[in-house]
Amino acid sequence: KAKQLIDRLEAQHSLSIEEYEYLIENQSDELAAYAAEKAVALRKQVYGTDVYIRGLIEIGNICRNDCYYCGIRRSNPACDRYRLTEAQILDCAREGYTLGFRTFVMQGGEDSAFSVDVVCHLVRQIKAEFPDCAVTLSLGEFPREAYQAMFDAGADRYLLRHETADKAHYEKLHPAQMSFDNRMRCLRDLKDIGYQTGCGFMVGSPYQTAQTLAEDLKFIEEFRPEMCGIGPFIPQKDTPFRDFPAGTCEQTVYLLSLLRLIQPNLLLPATTALGTIRPDGRERGLQAGANVVMPNLSPLGVRKKYALYDGKLCTGEEAAQCIGCLSRRVASVGCRIVTARGDIIR
Ligand code: 5AD
Ligand code: FES
């Protein structure tokens, strides 16, 4: 029965919530291999063997929010805070450009110092210096007008993981000041404004169930994001969730395959978190249907400070080293890193 559901998902790109739940509850190595084979075939049809790279610039770890899972949450006094200057950020982009990056992702905590004006100025500078590059922002929740101003300044894409599509679950992962409804409002505004929009969630987050995951899949099916970031939850020692178990590589890659079947042209990263819980996690992600990797371009001196979770990969290597390492890893599974913006193919 489960294989028949996979066949139907492959053909129709849609299932009911109950059917998604069934697929999640009945995950096995055999079923995952079956889904992965179909997912990789679909990815090949759309993207061939190309894997897109995104240069991640972690612009600061100061955050007003207090998500229970996240190492840079406001109430973590052990977090050594930093904020990159505009000059530092531009230098990261310059180095990235030389290495072949044509997308820069500026990610950071929700920090009022990165105001709409500051962000817009940054975006304009990067777009002026590198007109052939895409700029992706990942700076959390803003009012619609702010997202509009950043888009008008030239930002192409925005990543804002929904974290979970289940409101009650969302409220177990975040303190009362944070609102599920506002998160969803942000995602709809971003899409409406015209951003290539990314949502996503952690796999194995505390209190997650087959039901909440099924809701995530249904949400993604209906929302039709351009990108979707998923990676295992990994406990961070200074957070309230320090004692919860990490998500698994097996479940993460299985969900990557299901997402590829739901939306064949989805831009799906094999995340650093996946590579962190398992040395060959990113390769396994690619073999399950992922087609994006996001190496770190942040200055070496701040890498360790952007500690969302424990044990993060590549906090000690130069961007050039990561590219070399990743090129080999990507080649080992029959794919190839390309120098391109890597927009979604319609
Ligand atoms: N483990 C895994 N992923 C995490 N994130 C935040 N904290 C953790 C953690 N402990 C993810 C969230 C966030 C993204 C930037 O990183 O999903 O949206
Ligand atoms: Fe950074 Fe392998 S990707 S060292």
Written overview of the protein:
The chain is an alpha/beta fold and 346 residues long. It has a single domain (2-338), classed as Alpha-Beta Barrel (TIM Barrel), CATH 3.20.20. The chain contains 14 helices and 9 strands. The chain has helices spanning 2-12, 17-25, 29-47, 86-99, 116-129, 144-152, 167-173, 180-193, 210-223, 249-262, 272-277, 281-287, 300-303, 319-332, and strands at residues 50-53, 55-60, 103-108, 134-138, 157-159, 196-203, 227-232, 292-293, 336-338. A 6-stranded parallel sheet has the order 2-3-4-5-6-7. The chain has a 3-stranded parallel sheet with strand order 8-1-9, with helices on one face. Helix 2 crosses helix 9 (210-223). The longest helix has 19 residues, at 29-47. The radius of gyration is 19 Å and the shape is globular. The mean pLDDT is 97. The structure holds 5'-deoxyadenosine and FE2/S2 (inorganic) cluster. The site of FE2/S2 (inorganic) cluster has 7 residues, from helix 14. FE2/S2 (inorganic) cluster (FES) is lined by residues 295, 314, 317, 321-322, 325-326.
